[in-house]
Structures are given as structure tokens and as C-alpha cells.
């Protein structure tokens, strides 16, 4: 007989009949499931189902099969199958936290058989322990009941097999007997695992750091002991007293994918003590105090009360742009552009179908001038015109030398594609000055409007950081945009990039390719650059290396190819916050003109930031190919921490003053290894803002 509690549980779970109870049955079920359950039940034709009720019935059937297969995989201690199911199915599809007819969850079986790998896999997937085991006594009683009932069932079946004559029914009874003998051994192993288990040891390490002026971050590691049962949750406690009396708060962590916790809502300037305890099926173990033993919530800005650099900047710029528009709203520039050449007029398409209109003004070839091309790509496909050409429009057929300032101006315009018409109208009025620069920029705006109109798209994407030039006098400005939706367009087709590259007939020699040929040859590199420039750093504190080089008309900055929107860098730690105490230490270093730390000293060995910086500087010097002994002349920028939102911050490492920016012709004995490039400073600033 089951206890009354388990009778109630069985009634509640009556909808879940027991799954196959033998290893062979489990394997058959899993093979069957892997072929059937992977078919999404929502993909069936609605007409093949008799109403919504039958569809729901089919869904529940698949859920039951997946749940039963997971139970059997855990009971058989088949880690590969468990990981495979957790990878392909969601916790809801596996019914991960619904007890079976015996009142057990998959995690219960894993921890009571002391199968740590399977238990960890289940915990990371969000598995829980059965809520019915409210005490050690209830768990022990339930396991004893399962063992007793399994033993009783084995004895009954054995007597029937011995007493009955051989027949078909007897053969079935023998199969049942083997299945129950296997289940009896499983329950005895679970009971023994529970009885021999003990409470967990304390976490092996607890690290405490300052996350902000009102929060602390606690990072901890599993207990080192291998004799106790598997830990299924942790408890974080904090107090202003080292005796933890009174206790200010606690939090239970049962999602064990990442063993860390952020304590929020603390008072800045107040010291908090923190400790962490582990839990398993035998109860809570002893707590482990943090290192350091306490921490004070703070931020480096509290050192001198400095306000965030970017506070209100975006709002101020929007307000300034609004004021400029207000001044021009009654201006003649908002009348139709009367002096616009007739050849420039075009209708604004509302879709991409005009790419294939015979009257489009996309160019096939370049004839010495300044041009604009727009690259739209999706996966390995690229958007082309009806003649399998990349969209190209002319900016100026008499412009043979693109000034860097005009190009950089265009890159800034790319931040406001929706305002091109307004900019055109305003520049039209200013043409009375007959400025060559204004004439060129007005033509750029006309070309952008033409491209937008022919494509039916306002946002042309990001301007590539340098134009393509050829020996025929052509200059090609490239914009790049990734299309991530599955949108389809009328009369428009996407062409595989490789097909476009092989099918295009070059009109130039390999020695002197045209700008269009150069674009096609290097298009994969440009797409890779575009994708990498939109990647974001993971949260943390970084050490960046600032290195500039100057030319006649621009300053360029050294960046890594894999992340061109960020300075060369290495990660110092995962916590982006610099506390007030850490910032005070950095200020003391700067005030005595102390060299960058490269060698440990006994009085600094207890300073975590010093140790982290020491490792980061060595790694960064290796990355940019600078001998470590040269680092003694480098400096940490001590005016501020560069904050990029709330999750990423930078400390800057600067070369000696004379070497921050390399002048033209100046010898630089330490050149970075491959994997770096130099961007115009204005292009880098735009990428960093995005």
C-alpha cells in the first residue's frame, strides 16, 4: 500500500500512465520517439485532423512519449541520450518538472542514484526536485514504500511464473518479472543513495565584488567534496554584521547554469558581509564567507562627484536639430527644387520592383567619375538589378578626386537617411555661393535620393570605411546593409554571391581591374567587416590600447579586424564596475607617476585590481606585438573610465606622449601582427556610437 500522500499524488497523475519499465522497452520507445517527436505537431495539415480536440490529443501523446523516454534514459543512466533530448526539446516538450506515477521527477532519480553528470545536465535545463518531499522523513518513507511494493510485485510474479504451465501468458509474465526485478534494483539503489548521502560541504570559494553604487555581485563555486549528494541549490545571505545577526536578506539560487548572484537595492557607502551555503537532498550545508569578507557598494564617479559624460547628450542633439528645422521651415528651401536637372527626376518607388524596370537609372559600367553603390545581402545572397548588376548610381561624372572631408561628411549623413530630402532642400539654397564643396555634397544627396527612390528603401545601411578607386579614374562609395527578414519582393530575386562573381564578365584586365570588379572580388571581405562591426562585447571591464597614426588629410586609429568598432583590447574581468576604492588606488598610481604595473610586489598582492591589470597588460602587449619591457613607459588614462552603457567599461592604456600618434614617415619599430587594421578616426567614432 502507498501512503495516503502518494495515493493523492497518483490520483493527480492519473492522466500520466506509467511508461515502459524495462531497458529494452525504453530503447524501443526512444528510437520510436526520435523519429516521431521531432515532427512539429503544429505542422500537420489542419484538414487531416478531426477538429482542434484531436490535434490537442496528438500533442499530449507526443508530450507523454517524450516524458517517458526521458525518465527511462535517466533510469538507465544514459547521459548521451539525456543530453540529446535536452538539446532538441524544450523543458515544456519534455514535461521536465511533472512527476510520474511514482511521484518522482527525472532530477530525483539522478540525484538519488548519485549520477552527477546527468543531474548537472538536468539542473542546467531547469529541472527541479519533487515538491512532495517536504522533509527527510517523507523522502525516506516514500523510497521505502517504492522498494517494498516493487519487492512485493516481484514475489507475486515469480510465484505465478513458477506455478503456471508454459504458455503465451506465462511468457508475458516472465517479461513483466524481469522488468520489475530491474525496477526493484533501481529503487534499492536510490534508497541506498539517499541513506548514505550527507549534507554538502561549504562552497569551495565565494568571491564578492562591487557591481554598482547600490549592488554587489557574488560569484561562487561548487563544494570540492565528492562524497556528498549532488547540490541542487544555493542560498546567499547578507548582513551589515560579521556575525550575520540581524540578517538583512537572503536569496535561494536554483538555476545553476551560472553560479553568481547580484544583490540589489543596497545603500551606497555601507559595508555588507556575504556568505553562501549549498543544499542537497539531505539539507543545507555550512555557509562559506566571501572573499573579501565585506564590500561597500560604490562607483568611481563618487570619487569626485562626476556626472556621466553622455547624460542628456542625445536629447540635446535632438533639440538642436529641431531648432535648425524650425529656422528653415518657412525658408524657400522647402519649395520644390526648381534648379534640379531634368535628368535627375525620378519617381519614388514603394517597393523593389522598379529594380527590374527598363527605365531605371542604374549603371552597368563606370566611365570615370564618382559613384554610389548599395549592397543589400541576406545570408549568402545579394540583391541585384534586372540585369544581374549591383545597384550603382552616378554622383558626378567630372569628379576624379574624392576629398576625404567630403567622404567623411557622407558617412555622417548615413546616420540620418530619413532626412535626405530635407538636407537636399537646405543645401539647394546654399548653392548660390557656388562653393565647389557644396556642389559636390549636393550631388551626393541627389545620388542618395535617386538610390532610395529606385530601391524604394530609405535606409541604405553603413558606409564602408574607404571608397574603392581604380586606375581609370573611377571612385566607388559602398554602403552595406543586411536584410534579416524573410521578406520577398515582387519581380526581385536574390542571387548567390558566388554565382554573381563567376557570371560577371569583366571589362578590365586583371592587372588594372575597374572599381566594380574590385568590389566583386572583395565583396566577401566587406560583408564580413560589416557584420563584425555590429558585434557587441560581452559584459565586463576591458583594457583598451589607443594607437593613432596621422596622414596628410586624416588621423587613423588601430582596431582589431574581428571587432573593428572597438579599440584593441583584452578583458580584465566580467564585472564592468570600478569601485570608488579601486579608482582611488588608480589615482594614487597616476599622482606619483608610477609606471604601469608589470611585476608583482608584496604590498600589492592583496589588491585584486592590481593582479587583474598585471595579467591584462601582459596579454595586451603580446597581442599588439610590443615587448613587455616597453610597457614601463606606458600610462593608464586616469581622467575617467570609459563607460559604454551599464554593461561594458574600458580603462585605456596609452603609449608615451610622443608615440600616441605616429606621424607620416615616422618609424614605428613595433608593428602589430596580422589581424588589425586602421580606420579613419571619424569612421571609428560613428561605429562606436552604433
Automatic annotation (TrEMBL):
GO BP terms in the entry: establishment of mitotic spindle orientation; regulation of establishment of bipolar cell polarity
SUPFAM superfamilies per UniProt: Ankyrin repeat (SSF48403), Fibronectin type III (SSF49265)
GO cellular component, one term: spindle
Matches recorded under InterPro entries: ANKFN1 (IPR039269), Ankyrin_rpt-contain_sf (IPR036770), FN3_dom (IPR003961), FN3_sf (IPR036116), Ig-like_fold (IPR013783)
Gene3D superfamilies according to UniProt: Ankyrin repeat-containing domain, Immunoglobulins
Region feature (Disordered): 1-25
Fibronectin type-III domain span: 202-299
PANTHER family per record: ANKYRIN REPEAT AND FIBRONECTIN TYPE-III DOMAIN-CONTAINING PROTEIN 1-LIKE, WIDE AWAKE
Name of the protein in question: ANKF1 protein
Organism: Prunella fulvescens (Brown accentor)
Amino acid at each position: 500500500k502507498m501512503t495516503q500522500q502518494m495515493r493523492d499524488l497518483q490520483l493527480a497523475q492519473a492522466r500520466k500512465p506509467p511508461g515502459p519499465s524495462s531497458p529494452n522497452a525504453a530503447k524501443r520507445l526512444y528510437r520510436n520517439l526520435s523519429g516521431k517527436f521531432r515532427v512539429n505537431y503544429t505542422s500537420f495539415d489542419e484538414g487531416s485532423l478531426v477538429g482542434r480536440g484531436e490535434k490537442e490529443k496528438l500533442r499530449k501523446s507526443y508530450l507523454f512519449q517524450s516524458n517517458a523516454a526521458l525518465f527511462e534514459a535517466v533510469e538507465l543512466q544514459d547521459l548521451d541520450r539525456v543530453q540529446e533530448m535536452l538539446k532538441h526539446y524544450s523543458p515544456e516538450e519534455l514535461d521536465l518538472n511533472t512527476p510520474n506515477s511514482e511521484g518522482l521527477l527525472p532530477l530525483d532519480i539522478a540525484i538519488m542514484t548519485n549520477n552527477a553528470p546527468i543531474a548537472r545536465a538536468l539542473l542546467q535545463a531547469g529541472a527541479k526536485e519533487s515538491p512532495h518531499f517536504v522533509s527527510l522523513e517523507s523522502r525516506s518513507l516514500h523510497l521505502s514504500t517504492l522498494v517494498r511494493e516493487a519487492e512485493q510485485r516481484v514475489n507475486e510474479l515469480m510465484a505465478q511464473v513458477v506455478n503456471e504451465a508454459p504458455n503465451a501468458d506465462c511468457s508475458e509474465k516472465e517479461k513483466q518479472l524481469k522488468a520489475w526485478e530491474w525496477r526493484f534494483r533501481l529503487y534499492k539503489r536510490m534508497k541506498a543513495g539517499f541513506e548514505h548521502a550527507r549534507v554538502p560541504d561549504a562552497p569551495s570559494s565565494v568571491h564578492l565584488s562591487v557591481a554598482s553604487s547600490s549592488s554587489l555581485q557574488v560569484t561562487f563555486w561548487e563544494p570540492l567534496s565528492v562524497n556528498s549528494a549532488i547540490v541542487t541549490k544555493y542560498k546567499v545571505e547578507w548582513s551589515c554584521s560579521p556575525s550575520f545577526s540581524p540578517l538583512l536578506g537572503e536569496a535561494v539560487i536554483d538555476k545553476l547554469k551560472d553560479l553568481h548572484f547580484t544583490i540589489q537595492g543596497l545603500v551606497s557607502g555601507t559595508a555588507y558581509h556575504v556568505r553562501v551555503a549549498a543544499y542537497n537532498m539531505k539539507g543545507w550545508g555550512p555557509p562559506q564567507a566571501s572573499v573579501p569578507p565585506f564590500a561597500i557598494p560604490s562607483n568611481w564617479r563618487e570619487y569626485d562627484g562626476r556626472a556621466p559624460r553622455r547624460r542628456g547628450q542625445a536629447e540635446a542633439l535632438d533639440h538642436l536639430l529641431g531648432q535648425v528645422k524650425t529656422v528653415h521651415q518657412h525658408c524657400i528651401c522647402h519649395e520644390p527644387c526648381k534648379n534640379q536637372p531634368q535628368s535627375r527626376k525620378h519617381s519614388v518607388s514603394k517597393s523593389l520592383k522598379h529594380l527590374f524596370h527598363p527605365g531605371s537609372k542604374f549603371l552597368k559600367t563606370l566611365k570615370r567619375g564618382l559613384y554610389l553603390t548599395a549592397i543589400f545581402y541576406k545570408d549568402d545572397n545579394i540583391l541585384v538589378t534586372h540585369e544581374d548588376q549591383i545597384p550603382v548610381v552616378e554622383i558626378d561624372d567630372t569628379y576624379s578626386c574624392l576629398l576625404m572631408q567630403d567622404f567623411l561628411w557622407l558617412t555622417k549623413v548615413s546616420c540620418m537617411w530619413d532626412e535626405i530630402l530635407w538636407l537636399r532642400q537646405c543645401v539647394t539654397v546654399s548653392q548660390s555661393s557656388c562653393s565647389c564643396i557644396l556642389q559636390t555634397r549636393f550631388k551626393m544627396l541627389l545620388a542618395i535620393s535617386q538610390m532610395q527612390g529606385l530601391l524604394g528603401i530609405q535606409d541604405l545601411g553603413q558606409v564602408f570605411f574607404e571608397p574603392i578607386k581604380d586606375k581609370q579614374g573611377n571612385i566607388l562609395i559602398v554602403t552595406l546593409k543586411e536584410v534579416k527578414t524573410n521578406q520577398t519582393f515582387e519581380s526581385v530575386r536574390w542571387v548567390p554571391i558566388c554565382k554573381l562573381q563567376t557570371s560577371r564578365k569583366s571589362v578590365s584586365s586583371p592587372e588594372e581591374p575597374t572599381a566594380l570588379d574590385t568590389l566583386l572580388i572583395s565583396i566577401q571581405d566587406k560583408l564580413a567587416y560589416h557584420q563584425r562591426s555590429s558585434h557587441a562585447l560581452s559584459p565586463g571591464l576591458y583594457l583598451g590600447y589607443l594607437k593613432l597614426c596621422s596622414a596628410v588629410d586624416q588621423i587613423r586609429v588601430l582596431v582589431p579586424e574581428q571587432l573593428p568598432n572597438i579599440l584593441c583590447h583584452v578583458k580584465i574581468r566580467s564585472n564592468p564596475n570600478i569601485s570608488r576604492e579601486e579608482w582611488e588606488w588608480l589615482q594614487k598610481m597616476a599622482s606619483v607617476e608610477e609606471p604601469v604595473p608589470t611585476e608583482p610586489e608584496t604590498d600589492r598582492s592583496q589588491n585584486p585590481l592590481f593582479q587583474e591589470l598585471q595579467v591584462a597588460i601582459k596579454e595586451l602587449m603580446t597581442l599588439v606585438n610590443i615587448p613587455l619591457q616597453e610597457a614601463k613607459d606606458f600610462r593608464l588614462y586616469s581622467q575617467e573610465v570609459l563607460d559604454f552603457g551599464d554593461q561594458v567599461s574600458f580603462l585605456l592604456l596609452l603609449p608615451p606622449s610622443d608615440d600616441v600618434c605616429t606621424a607620416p614617415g615616422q618609424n614605428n619599430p613595433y608593428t602589430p601582427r596580422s589581424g588589425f587594421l586602421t580606420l579613419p578616426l571619424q569612421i571609428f567614432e560613428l561605429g562606436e556610437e552604433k
